[in-house]
Amino acid sequence: xxxxxxxxxxxxxxxxxxxxxxxxxxxxxxxxxxxxxxxxxxxxxxxxxxxxxxxxxxxxxxxxxxxxxxxxxxxxxxxxxxxx
Length: 84
What we know:
With 84 residues, the protein is an alpha+beta fold. The strands form two sheets. It has a three-stranded antiparallel beta sheet, with no helix packed on it.
């Protein structure tokens, strides 16, 4: 399964070492600069009746009380099936 698949990405981010490495790579930091990450709930609370439900792939808390929200987005692509 490719890591761009939503389920696979979320499962990978459950692993602390993978999550630290991914965040370090995206933020262009050495992994040792990210001492700790804590997974937070991914459902965003609706504050108003007209608000949309929001579910993030990953929410993490870093040292210094810095919160980051991570969403994997892929561009839609056309595909063709081969005749059986």
